[in-house]
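Hi P.,

Sorry for the delay on this. The queue was packed all week, but I finally got your sequence through. Input first:
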Amino acid sequence: MNNSDKMNHVVLADDDPDHSLLFKKVLHQVDPSKKLTVVHNGLELMNFLSGQVPDLIFLDLNMPCKNGYECLQEIRSNPATRETPVVVYSSSTHMTDIQNSYMHQADLYMVKPFNSVHLRNALENVLQMSWRKNYPNERFYFINNRFVPFTA
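Then the structure:
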């Protein structure tokens, strides 16, 4: 099932202005109709989510005020956002960060691509994904411009 038409509003939570700018530019290239909201820390994300629910969240792990794990816990404990797909978007390639993200109920782990071509490929793929819940055995992470199965 293609859910890209349902992914109209995307939120990026990332405190790095360079990553945010690149993400915004590439998302616009992939699909200019997508609305992007950028927040710069975990507290700002949670305040934003208290007023509206986006279709997809890209969440950095290492942010000020509240880190990504704290945000994930709050997102999953709130009935309004519990089913919102969350892609952890981190520069970390450590297996413990990937495993902890899935333990905190992330839907996908994506290592921040090093260039715009890889980011474009990642976004094209992520926006085309079917975001069905309850697939604990179907975990992947995106690294080196490809999806890799993750087994804990």
